[in-house]
Amino acid sequence: MGWELLEQWGDDVVRGEALTGGAGVNEVYRVRVAGHRAVGRLGRRSDADLAWETALLRHLDREGMAVPVPIPTVDGRLVADGLVIMTYVEGEPPETEADWGRVADALRQLHRLTYGWPQRPGWRSSTDLLRAEIGTKVDLGAMPAEAVARCRAAWERLSGRTACVVHGDPNPRNVRLTADRVALIDWDESHVDVPDLDLALPHNAAGLDDDAYDVAAQARAAWEAAVCWDPSGTDRFAVERLAEVRAI
């Protein structure tokens, strides 16, 4: 099945141009549903995985956070064989230190609202990976042993902290600012983990002390290296992020 699934949102759904992001994981397009702009995302995630994400977004919307809101099919489903349709979110990416301070506030609101949230099906947190080797995109068995040891040393510093939902990828492309709100988009990497993973922000916008920022930055670099690693070890981004993880 593919984009013909759009018909499950009605007879007047139109697919527009492709959007950047999600390369190799999802196909993302602008769509119009009942005359309104929206975004469609088609990928290989299971319906259980996507049901977790859509339930999270509906919860955050009800709690007053600015997020893409899932649009149901004609018969009320939020997921159809890997396809989800969400509202289009206006805004610009953060640029200034003040902008990033607003992003930090939004991330902390996310964390407060999701303590005790169940883990995304099939995922593992960074601290789970101190023992486990595989979790969704992560396969530590594909990494050199020395690299795994470095990543685990970074994650070990997070042990004992309370977990919640993390956005997982709060880069400028995934934030939309207006004068009166901060919206977080692209929740494809969201899962339950230690909130520090979201807080190593530009300008240290979360206001962490030196040690806390080092913990967060090292854990985040290790996470991104592990998530993006390929067996050949040639993914440039993964190699660069691993290089930022302190040697033991």
The top level CATH class name of the largest domain: Alpha Beta
Contiguous helical run count: 5
Helical amount among residues, as a percent range?
25-40%
Rg computed from alpha carbons, rounded to a whole number of angstroms: 18 Å
Biggest pleated sheet: 4 strands, antiparallel
Tally the structural domains.
Answer: 2
Strand content: 15-25%
Secondary-structure element order, N to C: EEEHEHEEHEEEEHH
Mean pLDDT: 94
Q: What is the CATH third-level topology name of the largest domain?
A: Aminoglycoside 3'-phosphotransferase, Chain: A, domain 2
| CATH-defined architecture of the largest domain | Alpha-Beta Complex
Q: List the strand order in the largest sheet.
A: 1-2-3-4
Number of strand segments: 10
Q: In one word, what is the shape?
A: globular
Structural class: alpha+beta
Low-confidence stretches are none
N→C terminal distance: 47 Å
CATH superfamily of the largest domain: Aminoglycoside phosphotransferase (APH), C-terminal lobe
Structure report:
- This protein is an alpha+beta fold and 248 residues long.
- The protein has 2 domains: 3-87, 2-Layer Sandwich (Phosphorylase Kinase, domain 1), CATH 3.30.200; 97-243, Alpha-Beta Complex (Aminoglycoside 3'-phosphotransferase, Chain: A, domain 2), CATH 3.90.1200.10.
- Helices cover 29% and strands 17% of the residues.
- It contains 5 helices and 10 strands, in the order βββαβαββαββββαα.
- The protein has a 4-stranded antiparallel β-sheet with strand order 1-2-3-4, with no helix packed on it.
- A hairpin with a 2-residue loop joins strand 5 and strand 6 (138-139).
- The longest helix is centred in the C-terminal third of the chain and has 19 residues, at 210-228.
- The chain is globular.
- It starts with 13 loop residues before the first strand and ends in a 5-residue tail after the last helix.
- The model has no long low-confidence stretch (mean pLDDT 94).
- It comes from Humibacillus xanthopallidus.
- Keywords: Transferase.
- InterPro entries: AGP_Transferase, Aminoglycoside_PTrfase, Kinase-like_dom_sf.
